[in-house]
């Protein structure tokens, strides 16, 4: 087994990676060029670690190089090793509910590969590496990374709606009466509102990355940063290319003058489309335009049923509200492996 580290800011894509993302049915955020756009704007940039066996890619991992809060605001230049302590975080930014390590279909001994991967990390990163934090693990992967002197704990679950519906109306019929009536009234009111312009679809070249980044940043600052969140708010440059992808759907709500009131992005996927970025102006700045968050869910369920996907993933947070919409929690785990036990 061989492991190669690729900095998407400067290194060429691993040979065969594009084919691997297709056969492993990965979400759009695993696109190597897109990972580069994300990394250039991140304080804790990610690297792609690829495992090959006999020249064939068998696994990949998104590894964020994370530094303490007292470290400089910006990441070190590509290729430069930091003299400050840091840790490696196996996580795929903006893909909530899915692990940062992926395998070829049918690959067997995942536990052994994870241990080899851990042994490769200090060889590549050097003496400053404190250890590894794994986020958003499913139960199987959590078992593989557990062991002596390691910490494995449950984390906030992700919300998933299994697709057993022929249409959004079939879904609405399964909800409690009050919630069902509320969603239908909102749907009708939004459709009839002359002061609201709603547009959604893939490959949106009419949406400004600066405008969306500004709204996301303001929304996140208003509600506060998630605890222990090492991600950087997506940059305008990243969003410029991201929203134009044919596998990224963007839903926008505007007033008649074109002011962006709310935005939602969704990753297309044949099995599990994912609701992703949501941001909106405060309610007192939107005028009469309320209920947009719930409307975005109605439209996402509509897309899932028309797509024929197995499920719709809505990420973590606001679990009780999502359960009212029929979503069920799926268990996730986080694990910490300090440097002395890496690979053991």
UniProtKB/TrEMBL annotation:
Record keywords, A-Z: Acyltransferase, Transferase
Enzyme Commission no: 2.3.1.-
A GO MF term: acyltransferase activity
Entry-linked InterPro entries: Acyl_CoA_acyltransferase (IPR016181)
Protein name in the entry: GNAT family N-acetyltransferase
Organism the protein comes from: Amycolatopsis iheyensis
């Amino acid at each position: 087994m061989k492991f190669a580290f690729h900095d998407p800011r400067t290194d060429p894509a691993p040979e065969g990676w594009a084919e691997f993302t297709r056969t492993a049915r990965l979400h759009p955020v695993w696109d190597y060029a897109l990972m580069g756009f994300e990394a250039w704007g991140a304080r804790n940039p990610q690297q792609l670690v690829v495992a090959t066996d006999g020249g064939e890619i068998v696994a990949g991992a998104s590894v964020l190089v994370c530094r303490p809060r007292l470290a400089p605001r910006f990441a070190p230049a590509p290729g430069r090793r930091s003299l400050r302590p840091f840790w490696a975080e196996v996580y795929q930014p903006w893909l909530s509910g899915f692990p940062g390590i992926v395998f070829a279909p049918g690959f067997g001994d995942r536990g052994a590969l994870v241990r080899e991967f851990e042994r490769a990390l200090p060889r590549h990163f050097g003496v400053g590496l404190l250890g590894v934090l794994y986020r958003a693990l499913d139960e199987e992967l959590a078992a593989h990374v557990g062991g002596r002197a390691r910490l494995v704990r449950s984390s906030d679950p992700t919300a998933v709606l299994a697709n057993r519906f022929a249409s959004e109306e079939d879904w609405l019929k399964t909800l409690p009466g009050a919630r069902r009536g509320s969603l239908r009234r909102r749907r009708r009111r939004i459709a009839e509102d002359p002061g609201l312009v709603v547009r959604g679809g893939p490959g949106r070249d009419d949406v400004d990355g600066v405008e969306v980044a500004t709204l996301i940043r303001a929304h996140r600052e208003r509600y506060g940063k998630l605890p222990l969140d090492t991600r950087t708010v997506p940059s305008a440059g990243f969003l410029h290319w991201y929203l134009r992808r044919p596998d990224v759907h963007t839903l926008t709500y505007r007033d008649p003058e074109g002011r962006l009131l709310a935005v939602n992005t969704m990753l297309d996927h044949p099995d599990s489309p994912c609701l992703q970025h949501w941001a909106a102006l405060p309610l007192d700045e939107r005028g009469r335009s309320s209920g947009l968050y719930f409307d975005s869910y109605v439209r996402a369920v509509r897309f899932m049923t028309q797509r024929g996907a197995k499920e719709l993933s809505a990420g973590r947070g606001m679990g009780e509200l999502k359960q009212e919409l029929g979503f069920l929690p799926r268990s996730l785990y986080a694990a910490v492996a300090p440097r002395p036990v890496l690979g053991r």
